[in-house]
Backbone:
């Protein structure tokens, strides 16, 4: 228990018997036992409280990490959203978002086709001239 062996316990019991007396010794030992039980309960309560607080702190740290990751993701998404035309985003916020999204994609494809046709026509004009 406290590094006390059998010989030390015999010496302590003999000293206690001499100073306390044989009639009061059982009551004193009972009181010491109750005190040790209370001490054990108190330490286990403190230990469980500390463990609960540590668990809460760990959960809070994990929550902060998740929030930071979400903020980073939001910032990355914000960069992508800035590259998309604001007009196309406003079209997407209409009543039927799927149809509007399809319209926006179709419009952007048409614009790309028109740009490609202009480039092709310039190439053919330069070939005819050259």
Residues:
């Amino acid at each position: 228990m406290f590094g006390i062996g059998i010989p030390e316990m015999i010496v302590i019991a003999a000293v206690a018997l001499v100073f306390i007396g044989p009639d009061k010794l059982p009551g004193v030992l009972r009181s010491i036992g109750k005190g040790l039980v209370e001490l054990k309960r108190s330490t286990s309560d403190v230990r469980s409280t500390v463990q609960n607080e540590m668990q809460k702190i760990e959960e809070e740290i994990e929550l902060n990490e998740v929030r930071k990751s979400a903020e980073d993701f939001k910032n990355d998404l914000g960069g992508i959203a800035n590259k998309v035309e604001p007009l196309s985003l406003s079209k997407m916020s209409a009543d039927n978002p799927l149809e509007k999204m399809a319209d926006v994609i179709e419009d952007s494809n048409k614009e790309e086709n028109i740009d490609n046709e202009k480039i092709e026509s310039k190439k053919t004009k330069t070939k005819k001239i050259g």
Q: What stands out?
A: The radius of gyration is 41 Å. The first helix runs from residue 6 to 20.
